[in-house]
């Protein structure tokens, strides 16, 4: 006869011996169930056996923030419905202690997973709604600053597929893959907007820091995705020698995407004592409708002379910008309001506004823009701004064309120079028009 313990063990094996799919039984359409839903979802995630799927059915479930899973193994989360985060803002949001004292918890944090698939069997995909409206606005920024919940974070995770998940109204950064190896993201969208305007005017830009896909690590492939937001759209975040799964953010391909916001971004990258690194990054086949910035490669500064960083082998190919609203091409120091020694948001319009060059402890090598078409730009083409003591090397503009370059002779802020161009060894070819004034023409 079987002992009760053996029987229990066998029974507990049954679900994944015969069926590898479990269903989470949340309470649908009930705002007041947000915290109990979060608890039961966390329990379902923490007890999910290896090689098992967890189904979130085709209904709307309120959650309170602090969804958490660690060390999942070959787990699949099938989101057929909507996860909607508490829409009362900071009031009910769970917090945790942090270096600053108390910080909000992330909406969703998955860490230490080995083998993870986020997918959907719904033809429309699954939806994650951050209810960010309550957190956005210039006044709210003064209150919360950047202590706002990131919508979904994958940290120290390997072998990941994310498909058919849609994210909207994130209170802060939307999607983070931090220190990850082997990630594919496809058919996903991000939409963070204050109103329905087809532009990034002052009202929409109030959804500050609503970054799209921020990724660091190695072997990352993002394709057939769309982002409309009010900060960086697709962002390559550096990794340092302290990384777990990579010591440099490298081998990243982002293709067949639409992006409108602060652009296709590399950085910002700041010299660190354990060497910050971004290498072998390609963006191609991107369409950028009414984007704010377009191509944006940015550094941050560090006074420590022993710190170092590199940006190496970056290619932007077949990129179309349709009526970009601010600077289309920005390669140089990050332009921000909130970091020390950053390039001022008022630069170069306001006399005393400063824009210091990138540090000479930061090496820029091989940045290529090929077949980049910019239609109807409203301000001067851009900046390519390195440190004159350690200039950017191998910067090539091959077929970088502004269709309205004649009008741009009168555009602000650089008029007939078109570009602010300094500290760079650059080459223009392939009909690049206009040619940056400090580039060699081939
Ligand atoms: C999970 O599935 C893989 C095959 O896909 C198998 O090799 C592995 O042993 C399974 N792991 C467990 C814990 O069942
Ligand atoms: C996870 O899945 C992969 C691929 O099917 C398999 O090789 C591996 O053994 C699985 N890992 C575990 C711990 O089951
Ligand atoms: C990263 O994840 C692995 C696998 O779950 C774990 O063993 C390791 O401790 C994690 N490392 C850190 C620094 O969190
Ligand atoms: C999920 O529900 C929506 C409406 O709520 C419906 O349009 C859709 O077909 C459903 N999908 C599935 C896979 O049942
Ligand atoms: C650069 O990254 C791509 C993936 O985007 C990869 O196929 C290629 O092998 C990498 N090149 C080098 C030199 O590592
Ligand atoms: C260039 O990118 C566009 C998307 O903006 C795409 O439709 C087109 O097929 C791409 N061209 C090539 C040659 O890949
Ligand atoms: C980096 O740049 C900032 C801004 O110009 C400057 O204050 C700092 O001293 C620089 N650091 C080094 C190591 O040169």
> Into which percentage range does the β-strand content fall?
35-45%
Through-space gap between termini: 86 Å
Indicate the low-confidence ranges by residue numbers.
1-18
Number of helices: 4
Instruction: Give me the CATH architecture of the largest domain, please.
Output: 3 Solenoid
Helical proportion, percent range: under 10%
- The domain count comes to 2
- CATH level 1 name of the largest domain: Mainly Beta
Number of strands: 31
What is the CA-atom radius of gyration, in angstroms? 23 Å
CATH topology of the largest domain: Pectate Lyase C-like
Q: What ions, cofactors and ligands are bound?
A: 2-acetamido-2-deoxy-beta-D-glucopyranose
- What's the mean pLDDT score? 95
Tell me, briefly, the overall form: globular
Class from secondary-structure proportions: mainly beta
Fourth CATH level, the homologous superfamily of the largest domain: Single-stranded right-handed beta-helix, Pectin lyase-like
Q: Mind summarizing the main beta sheet?
A: 29 strands, parallel
Keywords: Disulfide bond, Glycoprotein, Glycosidase, Hydrolase, Signal
InterPro entries: Glyco_hydro_28, Pectin_lyas_fold, Pectin_lyase_fold/virulence
Pfam families: Glyco_hydro_28
Family: Belongs to the glycosyl hydrolase 28 family.
